[in-house]
Specification:
Length: 151
């Protein structure tokens, strides 16, 4: 029994010894060639430019939004939202769900007069049957692009 155990121990130790052998590098003074898709570099440059410009584009400032709808009727809310998207594609629509109410807020107005003008337009179009409220909120503001001056 002892001989069997000693034989197994010696065979395991000899396998471990071979596992630790070092091999030398077969590539002496060679060159490494990396083959990559050139589109990866283009996408990386586009992402960097987008991320760099994103910080300068949108700022949150004090402004106004119109509260158009506060309802529990989802189909009516979706209908009003789709109509607003078609008629006023330049304005942002904010739709939130706070159980059980669906709220639709409209626009990013920096000046209260602009919000009041849009409120009058919406009331005249009779798209919204109820009241429209002007709410003070933080709104998105896109700064105007600076025109380079020639020197």
């Amino acid at each position: 029994m002892k001989r069997v155990l000693i034989g197994m121990l010696l065979s395991v130790l000899s396998c471990i010894g071979y596992a630790q052998s070092f091999q030398t590098d077969t590539l002496q003074n060679g060159k490494l060639i990396i083959a990559k898709d050139p589109r990866i570099e283009i996408v990386g440059q586009k992402m960097a430019a987008y991320n760099e410009g994103l910080a300068n584009k949108i700022q949150m400032v004090d402004g106004y939004r119109l509260m158009l709808l506060n309802t529990t009727d989802r189909t009516m809310a979706m209908q009003v939202r789709s109509t607003l998207l078609q008629q006023y594609p330049e304005q942002k629509i904010y739709m939130t769900f706070l159980s059980p109410y669906i709220k639709i807020k409209f626009g990013n107005f920096i000046e209260k007069a602009a919000a009041e003008d849009m409120k009058k337009k919406l009331l005249e179009s009779k798209l919204i049957s109820g009241n429209i409220y002007i709410l003070p909120e933080k709104v998105e503001s896109k700064p105007e692009k600076a025109v380079p001056t020639e020197e």
